[in-house]
Write a structure and sequence with these properties.
With 70 residues, this protein is α+β, with helices and mostly antiparallel strands. Helix content is 23%, strand content 34%.
């Protein structure tokens, strides 16, 4: 599982998808979320602006990443 470290309180789901290279563009991230292709903590999430905090996991495109604090 890949770990993504953030230095802020949270990161939005669409930004994380781009930052972790799970989506190439913001448009692709939006489509993935709207299509129900993204899991947050094991559950389908269709809110692309969802705030992710340290300890949250995101699964998309066959990969899982964990958000960690700085």
């Amino acid at each position: 599982m890949q770990q993504i470290s953030i230095s802020t309180e949270f990161i939005k789901l669409d930004a994380l998808l781009k930052y972790a290279s799970l989506a190439a563009t913001g448009g692709e991230a939006k489509q993935m979320v709207q299509a129900g292709e993204v899991l947050v903590n094991g559950e389908v999430c269709t809110m692309r602006g969802k705030k992710l905090r340290s300890g949250d996991t995101v699964t998309a495109a066959g990969r899982t990443v964990e958000v960690t604090g700085s």
